[in-house]
Amino acid sequence: MSGLGSLSNPSHTPTMAARATVSTQAVSAQASNNATRSSRPHPLLSIAKPLSSSFSVRSAVKDIGARLEGKVTTRSSKLSVNAVANKPRAKDEVQDITGGAGGMYTNTNSDVRRITPDNVNGRRVIKLVYVVLEAQYQSSLSAAVKAINANNKDLCFEVSGYLLEELRGESNFKKFEADCAEANMFIASLIFIEELADKVVQVVAPNRDRMDAVLVFPSMPQVMKMNKLGTFSMAQIGQSKSAVASFMKKKRAESGTGFEDGLLKLIRTLPKVLKYLPSDKAQDARNFMQSLQYWLGGSPENLENFLLMLSKEYVSGLEKMDVKIEEPVVFPDIGIWHPAAPCMYEDLKEYLNWYDTRKDAKFAKDAVVIGLVLQRTHLVTGDEGHYAAVVQEMEAKGAKVVPIFAGGLDFSGPLDSFYYNPMTRKPLVDAVVSLTGFALVGGPAKQDSPKAVEALKRLNVPYMVSVPLVFQTTEEWVDSTLGLHPVQVALQVALPELDGGMEPIIFSGRDKNTGRAHSLYDRVEAVANRAIKWGSLRKKKNAEKKLCITVFSFPPDKGNVGTAAYLNVFGSIWKVLKMLQAEGYDVGTMPEFEEGLIESVLNDKEAKYNSPELNIEYKMSMEEYTRLCDYAPALEENWGPPPGNLNTDGQNMLVYGKTYGNVFIGVQPTFGYEGDPMRLLFSKSASPHHGFAAYYTYVEKIFGADACLHFGTHGSLEFMPGKQVGMSEACYPDSLIGSIPNLYYYAANNPSEATIAKRRSYANTISYLTPPAENAGLYKGLKELAELIASYQSLKDTGRSLSIVNTIIAKAQECNLDRDVNLPEDAKDLNDLDRDNVVGKVYGKLMEIESRLLPCGLHIVGCPPSAEEAVATLVNIASIDRPEEGDEGLVGIPSILAKSVGREIEELYRGGDRGILKDVNLLEDIKIASRDMVQEFVSRTVGKDGRVGASALSNLAGLFGGPSGGLAPWMMPIKKGQFKKANPKELSKQFAYLKFCLEQIVKDNELGALKDTLNGGYTLPGPGGDPIRNPDVLPTGKNIHALDPQAIPTSAAMQSAGVVVERLLERQKLENEGRWPETIALVLWGTDNIKTYGESLAQVMWMVGV
C-alpha cells in the first residue's frame, strides 16, 4: 500500500487541475508568484468589499489609499484574485472602530439575513427567527427558505437571522425582541457565551409556549431548557438527578472520544427506532432527533426538508399539506475531506490510495505533510472555499495535506485515527494546523485541555491554530487597530493556547452580506509558508539546519547588549551551543568558554548598540536591501530613504553579530527612538527603521535561518506597530518575522508579555526559571536601628529604657521611617506599654523592609539551582497556605509553627501591623525557624558542586513513609525550641510537597524543550506566573500561556484576596482613627491578574460582597 511519503517524483511544485466548484474560492498560485508587497497604508484606512473570495489586505488598503490621494495603483493588475474598492470615504470619515462600542462587537446589520416572501398569494406565512454563533449556516438556510418560498404552494417563510455577537448592539437587540414577539419558530445553535445566552433566554422564554416550535441545538443549559417540539421538552434539564444523565456522564468518563462518536451514531439510529413507537411523546422525540440530523447535515436540501417537516408536524392547519419530505442526507461524522476528492473518506488507507494516485498533482518523495483540522459544518453547508484555498496554497508550495473533520467538538480521536501511518503507527504528518480556531477538545463550549495536550503530546509535531473571522466582517477587522474581536480572542486564541496552539494568524474573512467565508490571500500564504517551515524541521538533518540566536539590549536602549531579564545570556547561549554540538549541529569552532563567546560578538563587554565595539557580520548593499525587503518603501515616511543613519556605514546596512558554522548569533537593532521610545508604542504612523528591517531580512533571506531563537525577556520585535491580536500583512511584527519559526526563551514569571510575543510575533515560547527571591536584608542605618531594638529588648527592664527608646526614635527619623510610622518627639511621657508599641512599630517596619524579596543572581538555562537558591525558593513556597492542594489542603510552615505556640498566623500579622512587640518578635522567630528547617531538608540533596542535583533527590525518598521512630530532618532545628510541639503530620505533608516542588525545579527541560522544538516537536504548554504562588509553572521549558479566561479567579486567588482585603480594611481603620473606609478605588491591571490568576479581580469581588 502506498502512503503520503511513498511517491518518488522529485518535483516540488505539483500541477493542480482546476475544479469549477472551488476555482473562485481558491488561491491562485500565479498570484503568489507575481504579487510583490507594496508600501504600507495608513492603519486607519478601510478595506473595500471584496468581489471575490480571496484578496490581499495590503493590496486593498493600498488601492484605497491611492484613490484617496488621487493616484493610480498598479498593484491589482498583478493579482489574479483582487479586492475592489467600495466608494472611498473622505479622509475625515475614516473611523477607527476600536473605540467605544465598535471595538467590542460587530457592527453588521442583521437585516442582511432578513428574508420576506415576494408573493404570499394566500399561503400560510411562517415567521422564523434564528440565532447562531457563526455565519456558515446563513447561506445554506437562506437558500433553503428561498426554495420553499419559490416552490411550495401551501406555505412560505419570513426569516430573521442573528449572529450571537450582534445581540450586544442595542438596535439589533430591539429588532430581535420584536421579531421573537411575532415568531412561529425559533432555532438556536452553539450559544456558549453566557451573558448573551441570558439575553436570548430573556427574550425567547416569554414567547416559548406561544410558538409552534423552539429548537435549540448544543448550547448552554439555560438555552437548551427552552427546547419544545409538541410534547417533547427539555425544561427539566438540571432540576433533578436523572439516571440517564448520570449514566451518560459515567460513560463519557469511561469512553472518552468513543462516547462522542457513539452518541452521534445514536442520533442517527434512534429516529428509525422511535418511528415504530405509537405514543406522541416518542414521535416528538423522534422529530427532535431528526431535526438535529437535518441541522448537522447543513446542506440547503437538508434544511429545506427540516423546515417542511417542522411546518407539517407542528404548525396548525398544515397537517394535511401535500409535500414529500426526504430523510436527512447523512454525511460522515468524522473523516477526511479534500476539495479535489470525489467523496469524503472515513478510512485513512482509502484516502492515501486516492491521494498517491492523483493525476493532477505530483509531490517530492520527502515532501512535508501538513495535517489540517476543519469544522464539519463549513463542509456540509458548502461554505468551504476558505479551506480549499489553504489546501491548494499548501499543495502549490509542494506540501501534502491530510484535512480532517469531526461532527463533535472533540478532535483528539480523529487525530489518533488519521494522523498516524497505518502501517508503522508513527506520525504521518509533520505539522498540524487547526483551521477551526477553537480548542482541540470542547470547541467554544467546554474545553478539555489535558485531553488535548495528551493527544498532541503523543503526536509530537508543531501545532498551529489559525483563525477565521467569526464575530467581525473583513472590513471591521482591517479597520480596527485592535484587530481581532475581544470575544474571539478569548474563545479562539486564549483557549487554544492552553492546548499549546500557536500562531493565531487570521486566514479567512466573512462577507457581511452573505455570511460566507472567503480566504485572505496574503494570510493564507503566510499560514502555508510558516506551517511548511515548521514541518521542515522534522525533515532536515541537524547538520544542515541553520539557527539564528538573537540577543537584545535590556532594558531596551538602556543597558548593555546581550542582556535579558533575570538571565545570564551569554552563559546560557554557551550551554545551548554545547547542546547543539552534541546533537550534531554545525556550530563551527566555538570558544571554549563563555568569555570567548562574549568577546567574539562584543569586543567590549560593556558595548552599547551602534558602538564600534560590535562585530559586523554582514554588510548589505542598498541594491540587495531594496530587492529583498519588500516593505522597505513603507519605512521611508518615518526614516527617509535607506540606508538612513542607524545600522549603516553610509553605504551599506550593517548586521551585527557572529556566525559559528550554521549558527548566527545576531544583535537585534534598537527601537530607533532612543530619545522617545514611547513614540513607537503609541504613534500610529511609527515604524521600525531600515536597520531593523535589514536585520530580519538578512536572517530570513540571506543567512536562510530554519528557525530564530530570541534569547531572553525581551526584545522589540513583538512591540512593533500593528494590530494587538490578529495581524494583517500590514502589521510590522508579521512582516519582520516573515516565514521563520520563532522560538523564544521567556521568563516563566512574565506570562503577560510572553502572550504579546506569542500573538504578535508568532513565538513558540520556552520558559526559563527566574532566579529565586531572597530577603533584601538590612544595611547601614537600618542595620544599626535593628541592633538598637535588640538591645532595647534585653535592657528595657533596666534604667536605660528611656534613653534607648529616644535613640531608636532619632535613628528611625534619620532613616526616614517617620514617613511610615507615627513617632513621638520624646518618649519621656510614655508608659512602658506605649514605649513597647513604639519600638514594635519601628521593628515591624524594619522586618517588612528586610523581608522584601529581591532576585539573587542570574539564571543560566539548563543549570540547576545552588543550595542557597533552592532554600530561598522553598522557604517562600512553604510560607503559603494552600487549601486547594489535596483532599485536606496544605498548611504553610508559618501557620503550623504559630499554632504550636497557641497563636494564629493571621492574628500575628495583624499584631505586627499594630506594632505589638511580642508579635513582631514571634514573627521573626517563625521566619528564622522556617528557613532553618528548609535548610536542613535541602542539605540532603546538594552535590559536590554546591548545586541541587536530580540524582541527589533520591536521598529524600527515605524521609517519607518509612518506619516511624526516627526524627525527620526538618524537625531537628526546632526539636528543643519553642516550636517543638509543631504538628509532625502537617509538617510531613508540607515537606512532601516541597520535595515535589524541588523535583520540578531541578528538572532540566529548558534545553530539552529547545532540542525537541528544533526537531519539529510539540512544546508542552504550561501556565506562566509566580512559581512560588503557583508551582505548576514548574518545570520550566514550557510554551507559556497566560490564563484560562473561564477559570479565574481561582479558589486560591479568592482565599488570598480575602486575606489581603481583610488586612487592608484593618489597616485603613487603624490609620483613620477607628473609622472604616467609605470608598476604595482599585486599578485592575491585566498583567497582575494573569500573574496571580485573578487575585486583583477577587479583591473587588470580596469588597462588593460577591
- Number of beta-strand segments: 26
The geometry reads as: globular
Low-confidence stretches: 5-104, 240-245, 254-261
**Structural class estimated from helices and strands:** alpha/beta
In percent, how much strand structure appears in the residues? 5-15%
What's the pLDDT, averaged over the residues?
A: 81
The biggest sheet amounts to: 7 strands, mixed
Structure annotation, total helices:
38
Give the helix level as a range of percent.
Answer: 25-40%
What is the CA-CA span between the terminal residues?
Answer: 63 Å
Rg, alpha carbons: 33 Å
The neighbouring-strand order within the major sheet is 17-18-19-16-20-21-22
Give a written overview of the molecule.
The chain has 38 helices and 26 strands. The protein is of the alpha/beta class and 1106 residues long. The strands form six sheets. It has a seven-stranded mixed β-sheet with strand order 17-18-19-16-20-21-22, sandwiched between helices. A six-stranded mixed β-sheet has the order 3-2-4-5-6-7, with helices on both faces. Strand 4 (185-189), helix 5 and strand 5 (213-216) form a beta-alpha-beta unit. Helix 7 (243-255) crosses helix 8 (257-274), helix 30 (867-878) crosses helix 33 and helix 36 (1051-1071) crosses helix 38. The longest helix has 22 residues, at 917-938. The model is unreliable at 5-104, 240-245 and 254-261 (pLDDT under 50).
